[in-house]
Write a structure and sequence with these properties.
Blueprint (H helix, E strand, L loop, with lengths): L2 H14 L6 H17 L1 H12 L3 H27 L2 E3 L9 E8 L2 E5 L7 H12 L3 E5 L5 H14 L5 E3 L4 H8 L5 E5 L2 H13 L4 E4 L5 E4 L5 H13 L11 E5 L3 H16 L15 H10 L4 E4 L3 E2 L4 E2 L2 E4 L16 E7 L2 H8 L7 E5 L3 H10 L4 E4 L20 E2 L5 H6 L1 E8 L17 H7 L2
Parallel strand pairs: 3-4, 3-6, 4-5, 6-7, 8-9, 8-15, 9-14, 13-14, 15-16
Antiparallel strand pairs: 1-2, 2-18, 7-17, 10-13, 11-12
Helix pairs in contact: 2-4, 3-4, 3-6, 4-5, 9-10
The protein binds nicotinamide-adenine-dinucleotide.
The site of nicotinamide-adenine-dinucleotide has 27 residues, from helix 7 and helix 8.
């Protein structure tokens, strides 16, 4: 038996014996995770910095702090979430009690990408534990410092019967996918998402797929251009654009293009200085392969801002490109780096038609003060979730579930949605023996008229 098979077998036994199901046990596990994060903030921040020079402020704000908040929210609401949910009875089943039990799936597999290497391992874990599951986490092999720290901390703080971490790349992932998990939660690329789903289909394992895509960011002439530029530059260049919900490309109304470009330029300088390579607040590209992929996109259109490279540091300056067409390489796939192509549109119908050239994106951002424009975009474009007049910040609200649609994935999490994702809804109808209405039993002769009074 392989190491992972044996860990899973023990987790399976632990779950079947009922240890994970009580409210007390779940609360205890969530508190352990919170303690782990609070006691090891420095070591985690340092590991992420070693992996790709992510500023401590960003690691705390977009990873550790976010998970701590998510745990606090779950702790506050868990008692309410795990209660059976009463639902109305139906005429055909009169008299009866009807309710839905929130049942943990059992043993779940969480596969994470590298770009938010703490958050994307541990935020799904909050939902998995809150819902009463055990978990094996497979972090990314590309952030080796962070993944090593996550493994050693999880193994120190948790029993392996509850949470364990499997380190490795495709080989380890593939090995795990052969095991009989009860649920798979995958975050990563659309390409690998298809492999995960195919593999899960062999055993009919349910999946959540949190994938990527080309997220549009529309700016129309009614927007406050100065504030829009700030919110877009922040959302695009935080984590050096290596964010699944970062604006992938800009669609700017042609009447304001030049003015908006000036705002973008001055905002980039304001946030990162004249030479962003010297800024302490700017992340590097994760590895050479991604650096080379991104560098090759700089030949597309013309560089208006940025464009500088330093291969030895894997540094790419915050860059904005114009004179871009939909045939350019930069518009073919998700960019996932600090390069922001700018395209223009004449009216909102034109912008919507351009967005429809891609598969359904994970997010969409719209900067406007016009209600009719907002209504049209929300009605006519399908996307995972998004924001009006901001970027990325929607993730800071537990009450907004997060997930894609179509090629950007399916299923959702954050807040209560995480608990729901990791719970099976077990519907129960309960009757007593006092009343037994005979209409459903044969012989049926002459009874159909009664059925017709019920089914109408
Ligand atoms: P990836 O798909 O290459 O890898 C993700 C995970 O899958 C890693 O742990 C990796 O080891 C594993 N993996 C890779 N190839 C595999 C295979 N053939 N079989 C089984 N497992 C395999 O993604 P990445 O490069 O780490 O991350 C970037 C992608 O993730 C982007 O597309 C981004 O949009 C997406 N993403 C989505 C979200 C979201 O919440 N929707 C969040 C972050 C990143």
């Amino acid at each position: 038996m392989s190491e992972f098979q044996s860990i899973l077998k023990n987790q399976h036994r632990f779950f079947r014996d009922g240890h994970t199901k009580s409210l007390e046990f779940r609360v205890e596990q969530l508190n352990i995770l919170k303690t782990l994060l609070k006691e090891n903030e420095e070591v985690l921040i340092d590991a992420v910095y070693q992996d790709f020079k992510k500023p401590p402020f960003e690691t705390f704000g977009t990873e550790i702090g976010l998970i701590i908040n998510e745990i606090s929210f779950a702790l506050k609401n868990l008692e309410k979430w795990i209660r059976p949910e009463s639902v109305p009875s139906s005429l055909v089943n009169f008299p009866s009690k009807n309710y839905i039990l929130k049942e943990p799936y059992g043993n779940v597999l969480i596969i994470a990408p590298w770009n938010y290497p703490i958050q994307l391992c541990l935020l799904p874990l909050v939902g998995a534990l809150a819902a009463g599951n055990t978990a094996i986490i497979k972090p990314s092999e590309l952030t080796s410092h962070t993944s090593d720290v996550i493994q050693s901390l999880i193994h120190k703080y948790f029993s392996a019967d509850v949470v364990s971490v499997a380190l490795g790349g495709v080989d380890v992932s593939s090995e795990l996918l052969e095991l009989p998990f009860n649920y798979i939660f995958f975050t990563g690329s659309t390409r690998v998402g298809k492999i995960i789903m195919q593999s899960a289909a062999k055993r009919l394992i349910p999946v959540t797929l949190e994938l990527g895509g080309k997220t549009p960011c529309i700016v129309d002439e009614s927007a406050d251009l100065e504030i829009s530029a700030k919110r877009i530059v922040w959302g695009k260049f935080v984590n050096a654009g290596q964010t699944c919900v970062a604006p992938d490309y800009l669609l700017v109304q042609d009447s304001i293009k030049d003015e908006f470009l000036n705002h973008l330029k001055s905002t980039v300088h304001q946030l990162y200085g004249e030479d962003p390579s010297k800024s302490e607040d700017y992340t590097r590209i994760i590895n050479d392969a991604h650096f080379n992929r991104l560098a090759s996109l700089l030949n597309n259109g013309s560089v208006v801002i940025g464009g500088q490279l330093d291969e030895s540091e894997r540094y790419i300056a915050p860059t904005i490109l114009e004179n871009i067409t939909w045939d350019d390489q930069v518009m073919q796939d998700e960019i996932f780096g600090p390069i922001l192509p700018l395209l223009t549109f004449s009216d909102i119908d034109d912008a919507i038609a351009q967005i429809h050239r891609t598969t359904r994106p994970l997010a969409l951002y719209l900067f406007t003060t016009k209600d009719d424009v907002e209504k049209k975009v929300l009605e006519q474009v399908s996307f995972g979730g998004g924001a009006i007049n901001d970027t990325i910040a929607q993730l800071g609200n537990h009450h907004l579930s997060f997930g894609g649609v179509g090629a950007s994935g399916f299923g959702s999490y954050h807040g209560k949605a995480s608990f729901d994702s990791f719970s099976h809804q077990k519907s129960i109808m309960k009757k007593n023996f006092l009343v037994d209405i005979p209409i459903r039993y044969a012989p049926y002769d002459g009874k159909i008229k009664w059925l017709k009074t019920i089914f109408r």
